[in-house]
Amino acid sequence: MRALLDLVLPAGCAGCGEPGGPACPRCLRALSAPASWTRPDPAPPGLPAVAAIARYDGAVRGLLLAYKEHGSVSLARPLGAALARSLVLVMSVLAGAGPVVVVPVPSSGRQCRRRGADVVADLAAWAARELPAAGRRVQVVRALRHVRAVADSAGLDARARAANAVGAIGLRRAAAPYVAGRPVVIVDDLVTTGVSLAEAARALRAASATVIGAATIAATGRRGTGPTRDRRELGGTGIRSPAAQLHGRALRC
What we know:
Number of domains: 1
Mean pLDDT: 80
CATH class: Alpha Beta
Distance between the termini: 16 Å
Radius of gyration: 17 Å
Structural class: alpha/beta
Oligomer: single chain
Helix content: 25-40%
CATH topology: Rossmann fold
């Protein structure tokens, strides 16, 4: 329904509010930065290496919130393209270009029902479509699930987020053969304290997966830093610019 409304009554840009929604070219450029490494400080135990595209503020924050919380599904494609560049950086640590398993951090059942989709899994699917242009092959596997209820993490400090996440994520039934002994990259839209990524990594390592890193779109500035630059940051990956990525449908839960 929201996608139809966007066609009939176009809203302003989700990043800046100016005419030209759902995202104007200027705000889409915020998603075009090279992928780079980032790390919360302090980092939770077990957190793998994390890549991100941008700081979670301004236009990037607006675009992610519009997609996740307000049903702007046409933003899935440019956000997925940004996530794909982050994935390429993480996969650059591998010697070969063989297939890699991409595992989304799961949304809770409550979040899925409210949003009408598992938005991170949807972004992972869009990212996977972009990766052949960068010479990479991935298999998206929704291997993880919430095994207990968690509180909404918005507004929680680092200690409360960690307590909220402990033991909350486990492997889906029958998922072990898809990840055991295979290189895995965890994906999420956003890294804040890193506790969700660390918990996802714990569950995957318990299933004998080789977690090589985590790919995200944005990193919050609540720890005082955004993504840090690295000599392996990406320029030309073959992945199309976000301005060409404005149409798509969400995957249902």
